[in-house]
Amino acid sequence: xxxxxxxxxxxxxxxxxxxxxxxxxxxxxxxxxxxxxxxxxxxxxxxxxxxxxxxxxxxxxxxxxxxxxxxxxxxxxxxxxxxxxxxxxxxxxxxxxxxxxxxxxxxxxxxxxxxxxxxxxxxxxxxxxxxxxxxxxxxxxxxxxxxxxxxxxxxxxxxxxxxxxxxxxxxxxxxxxxxxxxxxxxxxxxxxxxxxxxxxxxxxxxxxxxxxxxxxxxxxxxxxxxxxxxxxxxxxxxxxxxxxxxxxxxxxxxxxxxxxxxxxxxxxxxxxxxxxxxxxxxxxxxxxxxxxxxxxxxxxxxxxxxxxxxxxxxxxxxxxxxxxxxxxxxxxxxxxxxxxxxxxxxxxxxxxxxxxxxxxxxxxxxxxxxxxxxxxxxxxxxxxxxxxxxxxxxxxxxxxxxxxxxxxxxxxxxxxxxxxxxxxxxxxxxxxxxxxxxxxxxxxxxxxxxxxxxxxxxxxxxxxxxxxxxxxxxxxxxxxxxxxxxxxxxxxxxxxxxxxxxxxxxxxxxxxxxxx
Length: 516
Hints:
Elements: E1 2-8, H1 12-23, E2 28-31, H2 63-66, H3 94-108, E3 112-113, E4 118-124, E5 127-132, E6 137-145, E7 151-152, E8 164-165, E9 180-184, H4 188-197, E10 203-208, H5 215-218, H6 230-236, E11 242-253, E12 259-265, E13 273-277, E14 279-282, E15 286-287, E16 301-302, E17 307-308, E18 322-324, H7 342-361, E19 367-370, H8 374-385, H9 389-393, E20 398-405, E21 408-416, H10 417-421, E22 430-437, E23 470-477, E24 480-486, H11 498-514
Parallel strand pairs: 1-2, 1-6, 2-3, 6-18, 8-14, 9-10, 9-14, 10-11
Antiparallel strand pairs: 4-5, 5-6, 7-15, 11-12, 12-13, 16-17, 19-21, 20-21, 20-22, 22-23, 23-24
């Protein structure tokens, strides 16, 4: 069984890429160890409520703009194939996503082999060989890993092997009644777990080496979300619970049951503390499983070996022809943007499809012709930043590109800015790149602190100091960054005021093209 492409995993990313390959008539297959799409979400999150928002009522009828508030739908040509039709809950149930993914796979005709567990991937001069547990083998010129982060990340704490794990522990809160519980990890899975135990456990401590970071402040949706931070109230309002900043030096079983830990507080010179608990649960995040690769094609791993290292084209830096899609692509924007989540990596998967089409099928990046005048270029950029979901979700990661050559211009949407910087679209004398970005200190400023000076809304003169999400247009001449223009913040995220947004942008474009 030989194909141009083998996609490993039929989760959201695998289905997204496969549906695009199917639409274009490519030669591919999807291998999925589960019996249906989205197997990961049949188990996770353990308490069965997603933190990806599902805002059904948005106040706009524009389907592109509605996707800004729909964090679960995949991209398709069918306007009816949307997750928002499955539930009205703002934070939906994981089972609703499983149903949606199954319907998406069926509606788009994705060619998937289920109950097919890949156990080995090897590579020779002719491509990849993929072996399944049942003995079947596939050959492919290229492999795309869309398996997500399927293994629990276990930190190197002496004695960690004694504790319960987020991926396997009994989630019945009554089994924790009256007990002292330590949760290792201060991310969403840790707080989700602690919050579920509040009504039954006697004492709950959350511990980790770094302070809690709140998503509403950092704008990184993988930091602690408000829906999971009720536990902070129980700590600060003295309800026998606590959040501990520091490192666990050792975990030791106690005679007769329970555990003793040696704990070192952060930011103090206090000696090691001994703390005792009845139960300990490790909620320490997940990692990419690279165990299926032969040594000859094992991809380089980074960030504590949790993610495969990738080029700007989502390809392994060490294994040519091995690509990645989905949450593992957050290696490129780790804890900065949204590639770790469906509403971000659906656009990354579409970008990967376009990269593969250009590299292997002679299909250039989709483009539309544009009049090369400053007004036309400025108007096209303004129109897109006011409705694009890709630029909104993949802030600072994806941009729209206007290339001016001779007496013509072309507009290319949703290009990864790193791919562009690496020459992915080829050389150009004049090129404008439009992104949506936060200010450089946006993740450290308290947005509710009125004493902090801020740029006024629609303040064109000081737009370069804006902290909130706003459009940024960069001009490159012969590949070198020459000038940057910021469009002023706007409360409603509508950057189309003639005197504030459109006219200054047109002047900027005109000066760049004139060489001024």
